[in-house]
């Protein structure tokens, strides 16, 4: 079985989607008679991150014109010349969609699309007019022609169906590699800045979608109500800045004079990310919209208690008592932070243990890869329809 992954980015610029592609590809190639090629648009981090793919050796194609679209005619040509039986597109709204659609039309072979939350209401409303144009020009045709769409959870399935898309949809979560949970390296932040305080970690893109403005405002509100929180806790914000969002966050912190309790550590390498999870005491994701956030699964894998919004699309985390629920607004986040601050150590420990058990039971990569391969086999006519695939008529 020859599969080609394609995407706008196969580097750390694509954050969680990059990690998903990387780990899914690695675990698929561990299954006998499965070959995965990786084709991607080139970006400023492609060369530095190429080594992470190990033996897979991705191919990067130079782009022309606006970076967000990434016109790369060589990508389409490479797909047409490839040995691929099926193309798996990760993400939407770029030339990778155009190239995938052209390959499918030209060869008559099937493609699968993982939207990664990009069809959720918040995501569609962000730069809405650009996405309306893209849908008219190519994305609607791309979605309709797909042999199967991949949703990360029931919430994403619902969002896809609400757009009138009746293509088959498989519901398969992101996977995770369970670490041994033993500290193996130093923290990625200066110890003199932490000064023995507990550490609440945010890790991900610094982007408006992530709710970080609400988070720093909530941190300011809690600091007003509880002056001693800065002596006991610090907020660590890790991740690559996008569009100057970090400057806005720092401006808010300066306005409230709380910058001494919030630490920005920038983008993290893979080893630094692991160290960040090892050395933090809790994790927070106050997002307005997520497909299925790998960072939450990673935090649980390290046994950390999590604060997250329901928009993170991990309701099983609340059912399993592995997370403190917050809404994507300042007051709710403030309440969640206060709950974290005053929770007994035994409670926080139980939340983290529950999260790790949940990941071990439902979100490990070998199971995810095996499920995805069964979808490929079905689409290619070599296997039965998996039970987690729904077709439009199945739901009526």
Describe this structure in words.
With 396 residues, the chain is α/β, with parallel strands linked by helices. The chain folds into two domains: 2-175 and 364-395, Glycogen Phosphorylase B (Rossmann fold), CATH 3.40.50; 191-362, Rossmann fold (3-Layer(aba) Sandwich), CATH 3.40.50.2000. 44% of the residues lie in helices and 16% in strands. It contains 17 helices and 14 strands. It has helices at 15-29, 46-49, 73-81, 95-107, 121-125, 128-145, 154-162, 191-194, 212-225, 229-232, 245-256, 270-279, 294-301, 315-319, 330-342, 345-362, 365-379; strands at residues 2-7, 35-41, 59-61, 86-90, 111-114, 148-151, 169-171, 198-203, 233-238, 262-266, 282-285, 306-309, 323-326, 389-390. The chain has an eight-stranded mixed beta sheet with strand order 3-2-1-4-5-6-7-14, with helices on both faces. A six-stranded parallel beta sheet has the order 10-9-8-11-12-13, sandwiched between helices. Helix 14 (315-319) links the parallel strand 12 (306-309) and strand 13. Helix 3 (73-81) packs parallel to helix 4 and helix 9 runs parallel beside helix 11 (245-256). It starts with a strand and ends in a 6-residue tail after the last strand.
């Amino acid at each position: 079985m020859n599969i080609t992954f394609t995407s706008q980015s196969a580097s750390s610029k694509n954050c969680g989607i990059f990690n998903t592609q990387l780990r899914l590809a690695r675990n698929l190639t561990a299954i006998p008679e499965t070959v995965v090629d990786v084709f991607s648009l080139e970006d400023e981090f492609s060369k530095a991150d190429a080594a992470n793919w190990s033996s897979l050796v991705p191919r990067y194609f130079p782009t022309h014109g606006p970076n967000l679209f990434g016109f790369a005619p060589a990508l389409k040509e490479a797909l047409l010349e490839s040995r691929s039986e099926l193309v798996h597109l990760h993400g939407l709204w770029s030339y990778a969609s155009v190239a995938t659609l052209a390959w499918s039309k030209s060869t008559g072979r099937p493609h699968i699309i993982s939207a990664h939350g990009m069809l959720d209401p918040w995501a569609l409303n962000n730069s809405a007019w650009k996405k309306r144009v893209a849908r008219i020009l190519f994305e609607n045709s791309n979605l309709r022609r797909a042999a199967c769409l991949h949703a990360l959870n029931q919430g994403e399935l619902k969002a896809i169906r609400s757009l009138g898309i009746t293509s088959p949809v498989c519901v398969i979560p992101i996977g995770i590699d369970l670490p041994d949970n033993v500290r193996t390296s130093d923290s990625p932040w200066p110890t003199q800045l932490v000064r023995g305080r507990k550490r609440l970690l945010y890790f991900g893109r610094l982007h408006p979608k992530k709710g970080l403005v609400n988070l720093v405002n909530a941190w300011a509100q809690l600091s007003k109500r509880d002056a001693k929180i800065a002596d006991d806790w610090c907020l660590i914000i890790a991740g690559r800045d996008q569009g100057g969002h970090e400057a806005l966050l720092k401006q808010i912190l300066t306005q409230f004079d709380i910058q001494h309790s919030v630490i920005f550590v920038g983008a993290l390498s893979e080893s630094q990310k692991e160290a960040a999870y090892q050395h933090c005491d809790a994790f927070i994701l106050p997002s307005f919209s997520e497909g299925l956030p790998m960072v939450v699964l990673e935090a649980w894998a390290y046994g950390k208690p999590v604060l997250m919004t329901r928009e993170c699309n991990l309701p099983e985390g609340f059912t399993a008592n592995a997370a403190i629920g917050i809404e994507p607004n300042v007051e709710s986040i403030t309440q969640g932070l206060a709950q974290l601050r005053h929770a007994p150590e035994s409670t926080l420990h139980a939340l983290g243990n529950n999260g790790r058990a949940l990941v071990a039971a439902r979100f490990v990569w070998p199971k995810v890869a095996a499920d995805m391969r069964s979808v490929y086999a079905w689409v290619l006519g070599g296997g039965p329809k998996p039970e987690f695939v729904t077709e439009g008529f199945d739901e009526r």
